[in-house]
Amino acid sequence: MKGFFESKVFGSVTVGKRGQIVIPVDVRKLFNIESGDKLIVFAKPEGRVVGLIPAEGFNNLLDSALKSIPKLKKESAE
Hints:
2 helices, elongated, two-stranded antiparallel sheet
């Protein structure tokens, strides 16, 4: 999890009249984001943080979490 908390600034973006932004090319290359890809937008309002997660990766994370629930329930009952 060490890398999870590390960050890098990739520049700035401007929000357009329709609320759109352009993801910097370095970020798109780093995360292999291509035109038409679906992204999940999340926010942590108290920290004024906005983030993007590829939808496929989010679905995989959610599937993994849901598979863990029965095991967690069993362990908490013991």
